[in-house]
Amino acid sequence: MAVRIAVLDDYQGVALDHADWSSLDAEVEVFREHIDDRDELVRRLQPFQVIAAMRERTPFPREVLEALPNLGLLVTTGMRNASIDLDAARELGVVVSGTGSGGDPERSWAATAELTWGLILSLARRIPAEDRAIREGGWQHTVGVEVAGRTLGVLGLGRLGRQVATVGRAFAMDVIAWSQNLTDEAAEQVGARRVDKDELFRASDVLTIHTVLSDRTRGLVGAEELALMRPTAYLVNTSRGPVVDEAALRAALREGRIAGAGIDVYGREPLPADDPWRTTPRTVLTPHIGYVTEGTYRTFYADTVENIASYLRGSPVRVING
Questions:
Q1: What is the rounded CA–CA span in Å between residue 47 and residue 5?
Q2: Packing angle between helix 127-135 and helix 110-124, nearest 10 degrees?
Q3: In the chain, is it the N or the C terminus that has fewer CB atoms within a 10 Å radius of its CB?
Q4: Residue 236, class by beta-carbon neighbours within 10 Å (0-12 exposed, 13-18 middle, 19+ buried)?
Q5: Secondary-structure breakdown of the chain: helix, strand, coil percentages, each rounded to the nearest 5
Q6: CATH architecture group of domain 106-285
Q7: Are residues 103 and 296 in contact, defined by beta-carbon separation less than 8 angstroms?
């Protein structure tokens, strides 16, 4: 009997086009629709020996892993996936392997950094609103703002945050930054100035978030921080939804206490049809596509196929659960 492989959450229907799945001596089934119900997920996945997961779109807690007795290999795109219980997988004998993150390892930051700037410029120049208006027969409804000469605040000056800061400098912005362990020297390396957390929120014309989600950063941007922001300021989040208190941010936007927000990540994904984000004003919304590019997908899926082939041959795979 052929090994059965499930490829999950292929929203765009492109998984089979980005790697040579035919090289595997296996039966491959692609799931385009996200399965949110845990019982239904388990029912659908029980026959499979191999599961290919796309990032953190589908969680694999202990309860799910324990209900999949046929599972031997779980491949996640990327080398970090907080939604997989790695300890449970190890105890159950499930190998968890990962992939590279982009076509050029030296530029793995590029996709999300570029989308961040797409959101910033879309907010500042009202691009989605003007696009919509012109298609409806209108002409020049809004007045945008230039980013040159304004202050870019970067929350989290890691690899991705540094690249966003560098572009900010190229746009002639004053760049300030804060994170819990940031030093003056690290900020100065990218032409930024380290400030304390409150000043970051008070002084930023554009505040962009680039910190990983952890116990320390969950809810890091809450009602208190949002209250410090200027009514003309914008917030952009391409990190993780729960870094921000989403209810507090929506309230600030509805009440006009900040000028707008560009959001690519959410506490629940995909967004339900009736999710309040869909009707929140002063927003530019994208469906968690910071990493969704041709180059990234080619690496994700090609490495996934390579890991599966190695596993089926009994060769070592790129393991992330030791």
A1: 9
A2: 60
A3: N
A4: buried
A5: 35, 15, 45
A6: 3-Layer(aba) Sandwich (3.40)
A7: yes
Q: Is 62 among the catalytic positions?
A: no
User: pTM for the full model?
Assistant: 0.93
Q: What is the pLDDT of residue 194?
A: 98
Q: Are 68 and 42 a contacting pair, CB within 8 Å? A: yes
Sign of the dihedral through C-alpha 19, 22, 24, 30: positive
210 noted as active-site residue = no
Structure tokens at 322: 């030791």
Average pLDDT score over residue span 292-315 = 96
Give Cβ neighbours of residue 295 (< 8 Å, ≥ 6 apart): 102, 103, 104, 111
Query: b/e for 153-172, b at 16 or more Cβ within 10 A?
Result: bbbbbeebbbbbbebbeebe
pLDDT of residue 1: 73
Quick check: is 240 catalytic? yes
Q: Is 255 helix (H, G, I), strand (E, B) or coil?
A: coil
Question: Does the pLDDT of residue 304 top 70, yes or no?
Answer: yes
Decide yes or no: CATH 3.40.50.720 for domain 3-101+294-313: yes
Active-site option among 225, 240, 246, 306: 240
Provide the residue ranges of all domains of the chain, joining segments of one domain with +: 3-101+294-313, 106-285
Catalytic residue among 4, 202, 269, 298: 269
Question: From the candidates 162, 210, 250, 288, which is the catalytic residue?
Answer: 288
